[in-house]
Design a protein that fits this description.
Number of helices: 6
Largest sheet: none
Region (Disordered): 23-71, 83-123
GO molecular function: electron transfer activity; heme binding; metal ion binding
Order of helices and strands: HHHHHH
Protein name: Cytochrome C oxidase, cbb3-type, subunit III
CATH architecture of the domain at 71-135: Orthogonal Bundle
Biased composition (Acidic residues): 23-62
Organism: Aliicoccus persicus
CATH class of the domain at 71-135: Mainly Alpha
Length: 137
């Protein structure tokens, strides 16, 4: 038993020794310097992209409050998986004919396993349009 244990231990040490990288320490300094240079360039590009994205988001926020919101498209994209293709219920309840307040509360609070949607995901004006879409069904 002792011989088997010693053989196993020696084999384990040899495997660990073979897995080590003794020479890589000298190269890591160069890699770190190259990575730092790359990060600086990437950070500058990201800053420019972030500024452009912020400008686009502000423009999108201004246009989001206009009447270009498609309640049916939003509902088909976000609601059909649980409420069915015709919104009459599946895993989630029937949404057709519900009053607007019920829809608004459900979208903002996310009852049960339903996800909630905040003002950044759907504006109050667009939520009113969506609630009207369901209440008129």
């Amino acid at each position: 038993m002792k011989k088997f244990f010693m053989f196993f231990l020696l084999s384990f040490v040899l495997v660990l020794g073979a897995c080590g990288n003794g020479d890589d320490d000298a190269d890591t300094t160069d890699d770190v310097e190259e990575d730092a240079d790359t990060e600086e360039v990437v950070d500058e590009e990201e800053a420019t992209e972030d500024e452009e994205a912020t400008d686009e988001e502000e423009e999108a926020d201004d246009s989001a409050s206009t009447s270009d919101f498609d309640a049916e498209e939003f509902a088909r994209t976000n609601c059909t998986a649980c409420h069915g293709q015709d919104f009459t219920g599946a895993m989630g309840p029937d949404l057709t004919g519900l009053d607007e307040g019920t829809i608004t509360d459900a979208v903002r609070e996310g009852p049960g396993s339903m996800p909630s949607y905040n003002e950044n995901q759907i504006s109050d004006e667009d939520l009113d349009v969506l609630a009207g879409f369901f209440s008129e069904m």
